[in-house]
Amino acid sequence: MTTTTEATEATEATEATDVITGARERIDALDDRIIGLIQERMAVSAVVQDARIASGGRRVNLSREMEILAHYSEALGKPGTSLAMTLLELCRGRI
């Protein structure tokens, strides 16, 4: 025979599993949106680079990249700087 404690623990375990499953599905959906936004950012960055090169400028604007790094760092701390570096590399390639 199942005790009240065992039944409560089983219910709590099932509820936890449901919460985890739902949260993971939401995370997966957010990751898909983030990837889409990064791809969009890459396309916009390519437009900027092309326009800059066509007007006689350089492919990369280091002062602008420093602004981006500072923005991410202020918003997310030190990991934000790493994230921004990765985004910049994805969007302009290695320099």
From TrEMBL:
Entry-linked Gene3D superfamilies: Chorismate mutase
User: What Gene Ontology biological process does one annotation of this record name?
Assistant: chorismate metabolic process
* E.C. code: 5.4.99.5
Q: Which UniProt keywords apply?
A: Isomerase
Q: Its Gene Ontology molecular function terms?
A: chorismate mutase activity
Q: Which InterPro entries match?
A: Chorismate_II_sf, Chorismate_mutase_highGC-bac, CM_dom_sf, CM_II_prokaryot
Q: Can you give the residue ranges of the Chorismate mutase domain?
A: 14-95
* Name used for this protein in its record: Chorismate mutase
Lineage, broadest ranks = Bacteria, Bacillati, Actinomycetota, Actinomycetes, Kitasatosporales
